[in-house]
Amino acid sequence: MQCGFGVSKRSSTKSEGITTYITIGCSRFGKSNISSQNILNPHPITKTQCKARIFAKRLEDNKWIVTSFSDEHNYVLSPGKSCNYRCNRKLTATAKRKLELNDADGIRMNKNFHVLMVEAGGHENLSFLEKDCRNYIEKVRRLRLGTGDASSLQNYFKQVQSIDANFFYNIDYDEENRIKNLFWADARCRAAYEDFGDVITFDTTYLTNKYDMPFAPFVGVNHHGHSILLGCGLISSEDTENFIWLFDT
């Protein structure tokens, strides 16, 4: 890994929970499956069908034997970039604490990460990337929205919708079924959007909730020149995936 390549692991486990074989290979094994190619912004090719790997299987006496091994890569290794491979990246306890404190103070992630980079003397001295920090803070924010709060929120939205059939809400869940993002708009907001939805402003600079989830109001202007609310959203972090979900909703 320190030689300049990432690793991936594959294994097979029986129903009894016993691992029968394991393969540890170069992360560039296989072929990239890109359905479309953007000429202006091409997707980087990360798979080169590299055959470097080690294969081992378990014997009947529970001992392991290496059955095949290859250390030949079909691309130029980059030892200087080894810290960027996922298998080598790790957020330290100190970094996690600073990220949480700065996030609670409303410091945006780009500045939050910049502080850690300066303290380390450069990004090459960090064992993690900015996206690792974003993923961690996003997870922390979701955890702040506890089970009781999440259930209460869903019950409240359902109650409002039972009274107002035009009340709309949508909730985005993560892989662990926790609330990740949400959007809502009542009947008045939806009617205002139909009449004054030609020009809309969108701002996520307000971190007013106790979960530090960016509040995202959609605001329009009526025929009197007054600001009117068209809808509201809460997102776990300001990244592209969450914004796409919010705008699609």
UniProtKB/TrEMBL annotation:
InterPro entries assigned to the protein according to its UniProt record, in alphabetical order: FAR1_DNA_bnd_dom (IPR004330), MULE_transposase_dom (IPR018289)
Domain (MULE transposase) ranges: 199-248
Occurrences of domain FAR1 (ranges): 2-78
Domain of life from the UniProt record: Eukaryota
PANTHER family: OS01G0519700 PROTEIN, PROTEIN FAR1-RELATED SEQUENCE 8-LIKE
The protein's name in its UniProt record: Protein FAR-RED IMPAIRED RESPONSE 1
Gene name linked to the record: FAR1
